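Consider the following input, taken from an annotated entry for Aminopyrimidine aminohydrolase (Methylobacterium cerastii).
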Amino acid sequence: MGATETGPFSQAAWARNAALYETIRTMPFNAELAAGTLGQSRFRHYIVQDAHYLIGFGRALSLAAAKAPEPDGIVLFAKAAEEAIVVERALHGGFFRDFGIGPDAFAATPLTPACDHYVAYLLSTAYAEPFEVLLGALLPCFWIYAEVGRDILARESAGNPYHAWIDTYSGTDFQEAVARMIAATNAAAIHASPTLRERMHRAFTHATRLEWMFWDSAYRDAAWPV
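Applying the prediction step yields:
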């Protein structure tokens, strides 16, 4: 499959996962987020787990910076790690204040199975896999959030209580950051062998599935079964 693939990696990856993205776009969590009817407890579950996730995501991005073969890549991924921690933490901080979630309550909340799985997958990929495969695993978090953010912005209800979240991920700054990540991943894939490119695809698909699991877990308020 990889041997006959033409065009940018991102184009092929999105086409392979188009049905999965549509499942994410229309899943109950995002449908209710757009309508402004998502229960506060579900969003609270999500925002706490997302704050935990971003710490691991930032570490994986830092490892991508360390593995980047060119100086521009080092800067790109180091900056992305900073933004994941600083910029998105500011978004979480606003909701934390609204929901009365203090530092102790956050620290005492364990990672759910979905969050733990996603973070562990990204970090294990960052440590054990080539740079190209790591980019395949990191890209869905950026790209899917950008697409979901734009989609929800187009259909959000007036006075949506989650507008700050929608505004962040549909905004120009985030969209431009995602475009840079897509370009970097495409550039890394250009000289990848068909076998390595196929590994990038598997990483992209697995991370896309984990995006669905993360939102679905929040919607169901999932916790460890034992």
